[in-house]
């Protein structure tokens, strides 16, 4: 779960999302990314560092440059995680280690405003 949290944190920045969009279309170096986004290479470097630490991208040295590419298996893990959340209607058996009671009354004594409901109701 910690890896998934790190990935979502990395994805929580507009510039990093733009970098991923660029990388979804081609392998490219930091200088190329900087030109496409009209930001400094230093800024790109910081964003790349976050994306690499999260395991979302990988770099390969080609001559004097490092070309970056998406780590598709890691992105597929995020897709799988989101699909699991979408498909997991029995939250009491949640695979993410979070116990949710079947009845709201079990955790919300007031229950006057029906503060929690199952999805789909």
From TrEMBL:
Protein name, UniProt field: Transcriptional repressor SdpR
Lineage: Bacteria, Bacillati, Bacillota, Clostridia, Peptostreptococcales
Domain HTH arsR-type: 1-90
Highest taxon of source: Bacteria
Pfam family, one: HTH_5
Gene3D superfamilies per UniProt: Winged helix-like DNA-binding domain superfamily/Winged helix DNA-binding domain
Annotated keywords: DNA-binding, Transcription, Transcription regulation
Gene Ontology MF: a single term: DNA-binding transcription factor activity
Gene name in the database record: sdpR_1
């Amino acid at each position: 779960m910690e890896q998934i949290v790190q990935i979502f944190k990395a994805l929580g920045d507009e510039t990093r999302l733009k970098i991923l969009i660029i990388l979804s279309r081609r392998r490219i170096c930091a200088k190329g990314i900087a030109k496409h986004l009209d930001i400094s290479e230093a800024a790109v470097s910081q964003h790349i560092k976050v994306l690499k630490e999260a395991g979302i991208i990988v770099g390969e040295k080609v001559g004097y440059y490092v070309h970056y590419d998406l780590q598709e298996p890691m992105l597929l893990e995020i897709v799988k995680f989101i699909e699991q959340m979408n498909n997991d209607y029995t939250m009491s058996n949640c695979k993410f280690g979070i116990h949710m009671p079947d009845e709201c009354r079990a955790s919300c004594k007031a229950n006057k405003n029906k503060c929690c409901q199952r999805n789909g109701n």
